[in-house]
């Protein structure tokens, strides 16, 4: 029955807060990898070299079509059979970073395609190199329309960090499980994990909206 | 493939035109946009290109800016091939590296301005000089401010394009193109997207360029009065060919060809 114990909740709070730090680090590091790698995936799909385009596009499709948990298991349990032995943290960051890079590359792709063709023509008329055109003209214009999508996946990656508990990364979910296993009390730890996620997700989504408006304003795009 | 050996590797002689189209054809599938075009533009000349839509006039400019490839013929700029390069004594289609060098002499303004929206007017003008010409920021800023003054936009130099009217954006775009010190300037229907009341501010800038500067210019326009006023020569395009060309007074005052007459009277009625 409903049997919430405040004293127990207070007792486990410090442990959960410590784990929250790990969760934030995991989400932050995974997201940083995804942001950079996603852009690489998106740009690679636009090169004139057909084999590169093909391989990257199919890889992105493959990653997006298989579960994250499976990818985490693969990197952690299967890769050692090929001589790649990584810590739970490293495996987790690679798996979650790759996974979200695939999604983010689609967000970027939409952003890149939204830049009018005339911008490319202006680049040619000014004789900018393709590299200069991309990184000084096209990508800066592709980012603002990508921000809402990027923000969604920031919250998404944060909410997916509990999956890392399956390979023993000591984030929130892992810690809550451990508390439950020791005390046989699950109500308080799981409830508190839910509340912590909520308290971080909601303001993040709100901050992203503010950031979006700020960037558009800064770039004179509204 | 066309036999390119009949084209000279470069143009020699005393009166080499700044631009020469030699037998240039452009087609999309079965649609021929330009049909064996020959056109010379001499130094300092202002040539207006008029004609009904679909007559290939914009394509002429786009090919010269290397935004379009061509199917046959060769374009020369300053006596050197633009669309082709020499390889073992014959011309072959130019590669990207060659194109980058060759098109440095050409500048272009577009119907829809195509300013970089994330940069201010000043940054738009400085981008090419700093990134492409390797100029110092200080030098580029001086030149850009000079040019923004020339087009009457110096007061708005720190504004983003979204804060500017169409006419103001187009004037910034002209300054941006001039900042690259092109030898040939191309104006592609630069007033077509503008509200009637701001067309004058753009045409005045171009008029000023014609009078004060020794630029070679090619302009595609629907404004017959303006073309008549400022051009040294007007070319009337029809179905991918130059149907008639001549001094503005002659072409507008006494057109020789039936199609020219029809076009001019149709345009006049619309005015």
Topology:
The complex is a heterodimer of chains A (222) and B (271).
Chain A: H1 6-44, H2 50-64, H3 68-78, H4 88-113, H5 117-125, H6 130-160, H7 172-183, H8 187-218
Helix pairs in contact in A: 1-4, 1-6, 1-7, 1-8, 2-4, 3-4, 4-6, 5-6, 6-8
Chain B: E1 19-28, E2 31-41, E3 46-50, H1 57-64, E4 72-77, E5 80-81, E6 84-87, E7 90-93, H2 96-102, E8 106-109, H3 121-131, H4 137-150, H5 166-178, E9 184-188, H6 196-212, E10 216-220, H7 224-230, E11 233-238, E12 241-246, H8 248-253, H9 258-270
Parallel strand pairs in B: 3-10, 3-11, 8-9, 9-10
Antiparallel strand pairs in B: 1-2, 1-4, 4-5, 6-7, 11-12
Any idea how many domains of chain B?
Answer: 1
Architecture (CATH level 2) name of chain A: Orthogonal Bundle
Quaternary state, please?
Answer: heterodimer
How much strand content do the residues of chain A show?
under 5%
Interface with most residues: A-B, 20 and 29 residues
Low-confidence spans of chain A? none
Main sheet characteristics of chain A: none
What does this structure look like?
The complex is a heterodimer of chains A (222) and B (271). Chain A is mainly alpha-helical and 222 residues long. The termini of chain A are far apart. Chain A has helices at residues 6-44, 50-64, 68-78, 88-113, 117-125, 130-160, 172-183, 187-218. Chain A has one domain (6-218): Orthogonal Bundle (MetI-like fold). In chain A, α1 (6-44) packs across α8 (187-218). Helix content of chain A is 79%, strand content 0%. The relative contact order of chain A is 0.15. Chain A is flat. The model of chain A has no long low-confidence stretch (mean pLDDT 93). Chain B is an alpha/beta fold and 271 residues long. Chain B has one domain: P-loop containing nucleotide triphosphate hydrolases (Rossmann fold). Helices cover 35% and strands 25% of the residues of chain B. Chain B has helices at 57-64, 96-102, 121-131, 137-150, 166-178, 196-212, 224-230, 248-253, 258-270; strands at residues 19-28, 31-41, 46-50, 72-77, 80-81, 84-87, 90-93, 106-109, 184-188, 216-220, 233-238, 241-246. In chain B, α3 runs parallel beside α5, α4 packs across α5 and α5 packs parallel to α6. The radius of gyration of chain B is 19 Å and the shape is globular. In chain B, 47% of the residues are buried. Chains A and B meet through α5 and α6 of A and β8 and α3 of B.
């Amino acid at each position: 029955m409903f049997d919430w114990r405040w004293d127990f909740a207070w007792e486990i709070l410090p442990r959960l807060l410590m784990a929250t730090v790990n969760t934030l680090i995991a989400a932050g590091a995974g997201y940083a990898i995804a942001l950079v790698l996603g852009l690489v995936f998106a740009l690679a799909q636009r090169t004139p070299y057909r084999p590169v385009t093909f391989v990257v596009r199919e890889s992105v499709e493959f990653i997006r079509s298989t579960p994250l948990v499976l990818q985490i298991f693969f990197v952690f349990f299967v890769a050692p059979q090929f001589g790649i032995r990584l810590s739970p943290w490293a495996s987790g960051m690679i798996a979650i970073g790759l996974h979200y890079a695939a999604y983010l590359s689609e967000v970027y792709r939409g952003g890149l395609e939204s830049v009018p063709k005339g911008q490319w023509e202006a680049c040619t008329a000014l004789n900018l190199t393709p590299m200069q055109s991309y990184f000084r003209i096209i990508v800066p214009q592709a980012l603002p329309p990508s921000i809402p999508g990027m923000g969604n996946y920031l919250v998404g990656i944060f909410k997916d960090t509990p999956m890392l508990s399956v390979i023993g990364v000591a984030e929130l979910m892992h810690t809550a499980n451990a508390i439950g296993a020791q005390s046989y009390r699950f109500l308080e730890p799981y409830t508190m994990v839910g509340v912590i996620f909520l308290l971080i997700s909601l303001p993040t989504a709100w901050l992203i909206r503010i950031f979006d408006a700020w960037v558009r304003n800064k770039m004179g795009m509204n | 493939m066309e036999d390119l050996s009949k084209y000279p590797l470069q143009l020699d002689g005393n009166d080499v035109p700044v631009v020469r189209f030699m037998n240039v054809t452009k087609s999309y599938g079965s649609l021929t946009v330009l049909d064996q075009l020959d056109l010379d533009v001499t130094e300092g000349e202002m040539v207006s290109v008029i004609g009904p839509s679909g007559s290939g006039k914009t394509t002429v400019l786009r090919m010269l800016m290397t935004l379009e490839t061509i199917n046959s013929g060769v374009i020369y700029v300053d006596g050197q091939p633009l669309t082709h390069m020499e390889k073992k004594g014959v011309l072959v289609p130019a590669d990207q590296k060659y194109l980058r060098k060759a098109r440095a002499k050409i500048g272009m303004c577009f119907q829809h301005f195509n300013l970089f929206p994330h940069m201010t007017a000043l940054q738009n003008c400085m981008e090419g000089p700093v990134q492409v010409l390797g100029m110092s920021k200080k030098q580029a800023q001086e030149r850009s401010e000079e040019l923004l003054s020339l087009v009457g936009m110096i007061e708005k130099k720190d504004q983003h394009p979204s804060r500017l009217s169409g006419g103001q954006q187009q004037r910034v775009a002209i300054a941006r193109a001039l900042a690259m010190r092109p030898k040939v300037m191309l104006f592609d229907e630069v007033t077509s997207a503008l509200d009637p009341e701001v067309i004058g501010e753009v045409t005045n800038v171009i008029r000023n360029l014609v009078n004060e500067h020794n630029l070679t210019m090619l302009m595609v326009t629907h404004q017959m009065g303006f073309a008549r006023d400022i051009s040294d020569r007007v070319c009337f395009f029809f179905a991918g060919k130059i149907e008639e060309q001549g001094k503005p007074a002659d072409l507008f005052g006494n057109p020789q060809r039936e199609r020219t007459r029809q076009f001019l009277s149709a345009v006049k009625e619309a005015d």
